[in-house]
């Protein structure tokens, strides 16, 4: 049987990556023997290209294609083989990050950018079975994280507000796939809820 694909999404500073680290150390999650992964990927040609592109203020359309190339590589080398062998895959960011972030960076260049970026993935991506959306106040998120490029704090908050809105639009379109997590709470509470929901989801799927 094909394994399940679980993704975690949210704006920068939502605390998502910290929760992923804690999931990796959680005995109940470890018992499931999942494959932990992330986008952008690390230590790959495409992931390195993305990393350099972000640092060097690359053209935003070029950036989209680099992120998307990285997704193709991620799917081919890790996600599809793991799911094919029945493994649970847990990814820190995945396609929805592209829809939400590039839906924002391309908004002055492309008509209906989020729809357009989604269209670019159609036919070859693997849609997650469950997606956690970390919901956090953009002001709090910006306090928690470093800056992206040369943006001022205000620009950053405005940018993340737009990204967050896009994430919520995606969640509204597919309410059965998305689970919104209140990430304004202490880390332990967030972790506990995510663990419970993962165990519940996988338990129900096996019935
Ligand atoms: P990430 O490596 O998750 O951030 P961090 O360095 O905090 O771990 O992602 C790097 C940035 O790239 C982050 O601002 C989100 C953004 N991003 C996109 O714009 N599009 C994408 O498709 C992905 C996967 C990430």
Characterise the protein shown here.
The chain has a single domain, classed as Rossmann fold, CATH 3.40.50.300. Helices cover 57% and strands 12% of the residues. The longest helix is centred in the middle third of the chain and has 25 residues. Strands 2-3-1-4-5 form a five-stranded parallel beta sheet, with helices on both faces. It is an alpha/beta fold. It binds thymidine-5'-diphosphate (TYD). Thymidine-5'-diphosphate binds next to helix 5.
Task: Explain briefly what this protein structure is.
The protein has nine helices and five strands, in the order βααβααβααβααβα. The protein is an alpha/beta fold and 207 residues long. It has one domain: P-loop containing nucleotide triphosphate hydrolases (Rossmann fold), CATH 3.40.50.300.
Keywords for this entry:
binds thymidine-5'-diphosphate, 9 helices, Rossmann fold, alpha/beta, 12% strand, 207 residues
**Basic shape:** globular
Helicity range of the residues? 55-70%
Provide the CATH architecture. Answer: 3-Layer(aba) Sandwich
The CATH C-level name is: Alpha Beta
Number of helices: 9
Largest sheet: 5 strands, parallel
Give me the strand/helix succession: EHHEHHEHHEHHEH
Q: What fraction strand?
A: 5-15%
The set of bound ligands, ions and cofactors reads:
thymidine-5'-diphosphate
How many domains make up the 3D coordinates? 1
In terms of quaternary structure, the protein is: single chain
Secondary-structure-derived class: alpha/beta
| Uncertain spans | none
Task: Identify the strand order in the major beta sheet.
Answer: 2-3-1-4-5
- Which fold name fills CATH's third level, the topology? Rossmann fold
How many beta-strand elements? Answer: 5
């Amino acid at each position: 049987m094909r394994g399940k694909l679980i993704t975690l999404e949210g704006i920068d500073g939502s605390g998502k990556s910290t929760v992923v680290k804690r999931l990796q150390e959680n005995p109940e999650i470890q018992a499931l023997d999942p494959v932990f992964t992330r986008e952008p990927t690390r230590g790959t040609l495409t992931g390195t290209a993305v990393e350099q592109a972000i640092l060097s203020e690359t053209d935003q359309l070029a950036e989209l294609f680099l992120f998307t190339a990285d997704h193709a590589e991620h799917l081919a080398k890790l996600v599809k083989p793991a799911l094919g062998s029945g493994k649970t895959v847990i990814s820190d960011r995945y396609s929805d990050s592209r829809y939400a972030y590039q839906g924002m960076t391309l908004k002055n260049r492309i008509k209906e950018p989020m729809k357009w970026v989604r269209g670019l993935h159609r036919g070859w991506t693997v849609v997650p079975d469950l997606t956690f959306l970390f919901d956090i106040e953009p002001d709090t998120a910006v306090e928690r994280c470093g800056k992206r490029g040369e943006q001022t704090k205000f620009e950053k908050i405005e940018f993340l507000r737009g990204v967050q809105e896009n994430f919520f639009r995606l969640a509204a379109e597919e309410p059965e796939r998305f689970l919104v997590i209140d990430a304004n709470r202490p880390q332990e509470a967030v972790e506990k809820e995510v663990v419970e929901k993962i165990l519940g989801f996988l338990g129900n799927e096996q019935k």
